[in-house]
Amino acid sequence: MTTTVRTSEPSPDFTADPDLAARALGGSVLAANDESFAEKESLIRPYPVVHQTHTFGHKGQLYDGWETRRRRDEGHDWAIVRLGVPGMISGIVVDTAYFTGNYPPRISVEACRIDGHPSLDELVEADWHPIVPVAEAKGDSVNEYAVTDTRRFTHVRINMHPDGGIARLRVHGTPVPDPAAFADLPLDLAALVNGAAITGASNAFYSNPIGVIMPGLPASQADGWETARRREPGHEWLDARLAGRGVVRVVELDTTHLKHNAPGWASIEAHDGDSAFELLPRTTLQPDTPHRFVLANDRPATAVRLNIFPDGGMARLRLYGRLTEEALAQMRERFAQP
């Protein structure tokens, strides 16, 4: 199949937030009332939508998305998605790429909070809250809907009124982890799943820098942060907000898959309010290598700046340590909010 690049209007600010439903974070399409033409799992595929005309299977034209039959009775079609990382949802993207005569004219989105591992029956009977009321949708378009509800949610239900096809669903937001899961153990203070975030980068030419704090091992050279080749003096940098104020004791800088484009050196500055200090001095890095540095640090920080010299890529950044008691209390308070 071939990939066609489509243009759209500039995205709203919420699309800079991570996709909480991403498969790489553990998201899953749990159920759909109908998937006669195309399977529900396509909704959260990570790669761009692919399409080739005049490719017919036993159920008709093949679509990279979720498509239901033509509805002949009252009601609407739906699919339930478990967020890989529960959190506060800032916006929804419903991409109807290549669905031109079979897209839903209207959509709505609901969300619920059921922690743990609920069954499908429990989810169907859950207390669902509308976060995107019934709204118009366009075919072969990236439809974007801001969300103002600030509650923590674990699942979303996308509704098509009355039927049709959707290529991709993105659920942007801010992770709100359950601090009880930390079990008072050291944790990765730079992990997206623990509430950390990328707040800035000097250059992100080849990849979205959020990849550097994603879970798991890097899958390829594209899975991480990589800059363009620097042609002027200076160096590149990446800013990260930690999951909370905490003391970092172990740094991991992973250049796996970066064989000819790894940085030559790296350093890390830590920030705690208005104060800054050196967390990791300028250190030589090797290509295609996970590096681990044990620190004699006892100063807490709320953010870091990773400097790479002069340019290149970083597959993963890990900062292991402990939250301060105050930060842990704040996280527990946020989690307990309805």
UniProtKB/TrEMBL annotation:
It is an enzyme of class 3 (hydrolase). Pathway: Nitrogen metabolism; (S)-allantoin degradation; (S)-ureidoglycolate from allantoate (aminidohydrolase route): step 1/1. Gene3D superfamilies: Galactose-binding domain-like. It holds the Pfam family Allantoicase. Its EC number is 3.5.3.4. One of its GO terms (molecular function) is allantoicase activity. Keywords: Hydrolase, Purine metabolism. It comes from Glycomyces rhizosphaerae. Residues 26-175, 195-323 form the Allantoicase domain. InterPro entries: Allantoicase, Allantoicase_dom, Galactose-bd-like_sf. The keyword Hydrolase applies. It catalyses: allantoate + H2O = (S)-ureidoglycolate + urea. HAMAP family: Allantoicase. This is Probable allantoicase. The keyword Cytoplasm does not apply. Belongs to the allantoicase family. Coiled coil: none annotated. SUPFAM superfamilies: Galactose-binding domain-like (SSF49785).
